Amino acid sequence: MKRYFGTSAFPGNIRVHPSISAINNIYKHHGIDFPDYSTFSLHKKAEGSTLILLPPSVKGTKMIDNFKPCIEAVVSGWMAVRGNRRRETGCKGFVLSDHADWTELNRLVELTEAKSVITVHGKSNVFRKYIEERGVGTSDLTFANSN
Fold first, then answer.
1. Considering only CA atoms, which of 86, 28, 80, 19 is closest in space to residue 53?
2. Which residues pair with 52 in a beta bridge?
3. Same domain for 19 and 63?
4. What is the pLDDT of residue 108?
5. How many CB atoms lie under 10 A from the CB of residue 8?
6. N or C: less crowded end of the chain, CB within 10 Å?
């Protein structure tokens, strides 16, 4: 997030929810860097200027009270859809999506001459089948606590 919005926007620390930290660790294991952050305790209040990253499942829970006063924001590809920012009353909305479209995905595989592709979510079974038919190996990234 610091790289996306710029370091001057964050005079304090970055703290992330344990579930976000767990996903970040998977990325780190594969060589993807993140700005410095710490994982917070679910019951400890935030102090000073701190960017706190929470999963959407926390919205509307009492846990949010640990971080007030605060400015809430939603970061999602859904913020590009007209009306979604209005429905997130009291929140800022930033458009940032982890989805790519069919053409972008296939072009990326072609340009990189990928020998293997790991999918995460969405219609990944359809995409895997399509690129396997073109000779590219695939696998699905599964998380330790997924059902």
1. 19
2. 15
3. yes
4. 87
5. 7
6. C
- Pair of tokens at residue 91: 């929140």
Backbone angles phi, psi at 89, to 5 degrees: -50, 135
Structure token digits, residue 146: 């997924």
Residue 121 lies in a domain: yes
Work out whether strand 13-16 and strand 50-53 pair parallel, antiparallel, or are unpaired: parallel
* Residue 76 domain flag: no
Same domain, yes or no: 59 and 107: no
3/35 Cα distance (integer angstroms): 8
C-alpha 40/C-alpha 103 separation (Å) is: 39
Q: Are residues 9 and 53 in the same domain?
A: yes
Q: In terms of residue numbers, what domain contains 10?
A: 2-67
Task: Tell me the per-residue pLDDT of 26-80, one tens digit each, with 9 for 90 and over.
Answer: 988 888 877 888 888 766 666 677 888 888 888 778 877 777 777 778 877 777 7
